Amino acid sequence: CGVGTAALCLAHRVRDLDLHGVEVQRDYAALARANAEGNNLPLTVYDADICAMPLDLRHRSFDAVILNPPWHEPEAMGSPNPGRDRANRLEMDLAIWMSAAMTRTRQGGWIVVIQRAESLPELLAALSGERAVAPAMVQLNGSPIGGVGPEARRAMGLLCAPEERIGHAAV
Questions:
Q1: Helix (H) or strand (E) segment spanning residue 6
Q2: pLDDT by residue (tens digit) across 54-77?
Q3: Which of 9, 19, 56, 163 lies 20 to 30 A from 48 at CA?
Q4: CB-count burial class (<10 Å; 0-12, 13-18, 19+) for 109
């Protein structure tokens, strides 16, 4: 969730939301809480990693999940500010981010990804299951779907979005 920018912009535009954010850096999580409080907007922020979410979050699903993974590859030139450097540097595969989003998104819900256009093939491969990170990492409503084919995924409520540039479809 970083300092809460995307969540708080949404909270400002759409009232009465039940917003939750996950942030691995405690300082940034504290800033997100302060930003929410200072703008009188609702946001519950968890000091956690997306791979080890708090138990109460693991048992919830949401109508929409917004994720903004770091953009820069590990070998890219970093920021002199250690917190900003960590926030901007991709430390885990985008498939893990997509799995976390898919696991928390209610059937029929939305996943919104803020990411570079160059990452689209990798994101679509993760979403379609072509690039699973581990057998049980790609989940829908808490059930593993990493090995489930396109027909079964459609039966579960996932939609097919053609992507001609990579010659595949995201299911």
A1: helix 5-13
A2: 888 888 889 989 888 776 666 666
A3: 9
A4: middle
Two tokens at 102? 């898919």
Contact 61, 101 (CB under 8 A): no
State residue 23 phi and psi, 5-degree precision.
Answer: -135, 130
For residues 70 and 90, the answer to whether their CB atoms sit within 8 Å is: yes
Distance of CA 105 to the CA centre of its chain: 10
Query: Can you tell me whether residue 60 is helix, strand or coil?
Result: coil
**Predicted TM-score (pTM) above 0.90:** no
DSSP letter string, 74-141: TTS---SSHHHHHHHB--S-HHHHHHHHHHHEEEEEEEEE---GGGHHHHHHHHHTTT-SSTTTSEET
